[in-house]
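Teaching note: in complex prediction, the entire set of molecules is handled at once rather than each chain in isolation. The prompt given to students was simply: 'Predict the structure of this complex.' The entities are:
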Amino acid sequence: MRVKLTVQKFDPEQDVKPHNRDYFVEAGRETTVLAALMKIKAEIDGTLTFRASCRAAICGSCPMQINGSQKLACRTSIFEELEHHQKISVGPMANMPVIKDMVVQMDPFWEKIRAVTPYVISSDDGERPIPTEALKTIQTDLENADACIMCGACLSACNSFEASDQFLGPAALAKAIRFQVDPRDEQHDTRLNALQESNGIWDCVRCVSCVQVCPKDVQPMEQIVRLRRRSIEKGLTDSVGARHITKFVKIVGEEGRLNEARLPIMMTWGSLKKMLRIIPLGIKMLLHGKAPITPHKVPDVHEIQAIFKRKQESKR
Amino acid sequence: MKYAYYPGCAAKGAAPELHQATMKVVQKLGIEIKELMAFNCCGAGVITEADPDLAYTLNARTLATAEKDHLDIMTVCGTCQGVLGGINKKLQGDDALRARINVALKESTGLEYHGTVEVKHLQWILVKDFGIDALKTFISHPLTDLSIAPFYGCYILRPSSTSRFDDWENPVSLEKLIQAIGAHPVPYDGRTKCCGFPVFLEKEKIALSMVGERIGEAKEKGGDAMVTPCPLCHMSLDIYQERAEKNRQREKGFTEKLDMPILHLPQLLGLAMGFTPDELGMKRHLSPTGSFIDKIESQN
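The expected output is the structure of the full assembly:
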């Protein structure tokens, strides 16, 4: 079947701005977007530029935007895309500077990976025997975080990164969990402390985009959630982000529902600056009948309290 | 057609107009509901962050209550849909998990969940169960010539492993509903992105930048109003709009006002069914709706 690919072309040395070009190629049931691009490059337009290597979703070289979301070109089927979108548009990954056509500057991605110190820190000089029993648990504790092929699709899709390029982002934070569960690493607490800082784990908006686009099912957002849970378990509960969780749980445990007037006060308690930001909004909401100042009256609230009580007792 | 209605905390708290508009619309359409009066919070994903089993047990209580009446659940909040619906899929698909959660649930409440309930957002019920053609027969005041920007938010679409109603990459259900009331759906990239709500108290700057981007793009593409199936997105886009506008002017040099009415899905449908803005609780919004209402009134 003859199919049309609309490809975004951009050469900063020649073009003022990106432009689309349509290419027509023969494609079969098995044809991938990468195979089609390679055919175009070989037969129609030698200037078309993209990264690719293994063609088997292992090397992580060929992520690009296909019909608006980040995918590896080598494991994206032309036919499935046509079925879903009735068209095939191809462009470079979003939120990254374009070098040429589909080739983007990956430096911001690697800077973030480097920022989480991606290697085991240990005083061991290599002479001590490896604690094999402890190492056995790593594989399960990693929960697939080690499957990352560093393609950068998650960072490109990350809604927080789009709004603030300083955010460490999904891949680097998923990498960080690897060193939390490694028994050889001696800096667990220092590492976790560092992730509480601005641009760390509490900047994730939980939009789930990274989970959707990851070609290796690393579920980066779920790894960030594990880092948050671990932080609270280790007593790192001072940040507004941690308080968002602990106070939310406290309120629902007492009242059965979320009290939208109480949560912001409890979260910002002690920070005059933050409280002064929420008070004017609270007043406006009150005037518009949107601030529930009386708590929810939930029938059978004792049932909900019993669920929380049982949970607390089981933790002791 | 009867459902157990799960309003969620927002519709019973900071967004009472959502509950109000839902009541108007379902009554008009003849969709029977039994409100879950003793419902608990779904946890909004936040309780799941603290303790997944606790969130599963809380949501199992909701599911078991509806199951006793042999009813599927209707939600009106995208976040509740994602959390309650997602946990339901996990409990249905994993017998060992359901058994473990049932031990906790039974001990605390005497209830047990057998996995027979479906959780459906009003948006899905209208598109799938009720049907667009049936809905069209109730449209007495079509919003012809108006352009409405659909804003899905995150949890009604993602993760697609448990939210399978619409295609997360290219959803169409809100567009279908907008067309059903005679208006034009605005195509724009931000429709499936985050509204910023989860980090407003942590990172107001990130959140404001998101609100400004979403509304700015919808406006630039010609939107007269935005519609959302999630009251948390509504709060973000409505309550924080004024600050987002100032932030956008300061950070990005824009001069124009955002001036974007943000509607809950049942409010938009209600307007096209002939309810007045007051009946749909639109006075409770913080962002201006006046010019939009004038446009509607000049048509009818």
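Point out the following to students. The mean pLDDT of chain A is 94. Residues 51 and 82 of chain A are 23 Å apart (CA to CA).
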